Automatic annotation (TrEMBL):
This is tRNA (adenine(58)-N(1))-methyltransferase catalytic subunit TRM61. InterPro entries: SAM-dependent_MTases_sf (IPR029063), TRM61_C (IPR049470), tRNA_MeTrfase_Gcd14 (IPR014816). It comes from Penicillium argentinense. Residues 115-418 form the tRNA (adenine(58)-N(1))-methyltransferase catalytic subunit TRM61 C-terminal domain. Residues 90-102 have a biased composition (Acidic residues). It is found in: Nucleus. Transmembrane segments: none annotated. It is an enzyme of class 2 (transferase). Gene3D superfamilies: 3.10.330.20, Vaccinia Virus protein VP39. GO terms for molecular function: tRNA (adenine(58)-N1)-methyltransferase activity. Residues 71-106 are annotated as: Disordered.
Amino acid sequence: MPSPFLTPGVNAGADTLALLHLRRDQIMPTILRTYDDQNEGYSEGKVSNTRFGSFPHSTMIGQPWGSQIAASKVDTGSRGRKATKRKADDLDESTPGADEETAASFKQPVTASSGFLHMTYPTPESWTLSLPHRTQVVYTPDYSYILHRLRARPGCTVIEAGAGSGSFTHASVRAVFNGYPGGEPATKKQRLGKVCSFEFHEQRALRVREEITDHGLDGLVEVTHRDVYEDGFLLGDPKTGRSPQASAIFLDLPAPWLALKHLVRNPESGESPLDPNSTVYLCTFSPCLEQAERTIRTMRKLSWLNISMVEVQHNRIDVKRERVGLDAEGVRGATVFPRTVDEAVNKLRTDEQRAKRFRLAHMDGEEQFAAAKDDEKEKAAAAAAAQGPPVPVYNMGRLTHRSEPELRTHTSYLVFAILPRDWTEEDEQRCRQKWLSDI
Ligand code: SAM
């Protein structure tokens, strides 16, 4: 099955992960199913019950990604409610506190045809915002920078520990994917990009493995249940297993320095997990400076080079143009201050209209419908009211900016380092011969 994360195609297929956007900041992930054990005997398949209505999956499967889906006209809620309650109870038990938002939206009363949602295919970015949290996760501003510094590119192998909630896993598999999921690479020389993910907590390892299968990423991600401090990074048996031959490594662990002894070119026993033919790029993610320092000390002892530390301080910047017009002397470009009561009233009116337009753009369907009705009433009242002076025409104004403080990210110290490949006498001879044949 092609992964919707990598090759989503045009239409939503059955048994595929889809993201249901209820609002701009409320996304509900669901696997589209043509059947539902809890809804046996009905043809609409699984039903997603939300505060905006019931959405039978039969109305979504086969639709183009990005479609607006209307809630069911049939009240599937009454029979869905039993399943809904069970589902909400399940969520409450299995993910205490972590998935309250989803659980809350499941618990909402269900009414027929009360709204709509938008259905999109998942991306690592939207998955990070909607995944069920089992741990702290790495957010997009951090992982986009990390993957760039790790030179994660199609065909390379990434080691990740711990897998946690799988946020970084999804971003890294997209970075190394080279277009042949589960198949052969294009040429014998080309390797299939792969993520080797290690997780110490058994339940978390199981959940990530299930998600990888549900998301069509089998063969591209291999999840191993393992304490990497003790047992390192070989695949299969910790002592005699295969080497992942990784060229990029990301450690999101409480004590990354304890894992570094396994990331060497010539281990005392077993194979090295590193790619013998490539420089290896490493990043560790630690919330406090003492941990970063300890990691750096161990890196130096183990011959890692180019060690540097970065903290990603990501801010969204809201850029606006100041409104300007003609001042009292008729000079264009001056900031407009109201001089008369009429002008002040007029300015308030324009500001209000602008704020309303902004609010409208961020509402869901149901709210937009209610707002449009209110708007009609207001317009009628305004037409009947006294005629004010015309709204001034604003010219190009000075650009101003303000940064948005609340961007979801878990700031940590990122320590980067590289380990060059070993250079043998054989390599030297090969290089010399090539050089001689080139001249
Ligand atoms: N990077 C993950 C993500 O983006 O979703 C989050 C990782 S979470 C902060 C840290 C994980 O490391 C936890 O799930 C924990 O169980 C795991 N862990 C801790 N010690 C470990 C060890 N010795 N070996 C493997 N995993 C370990």
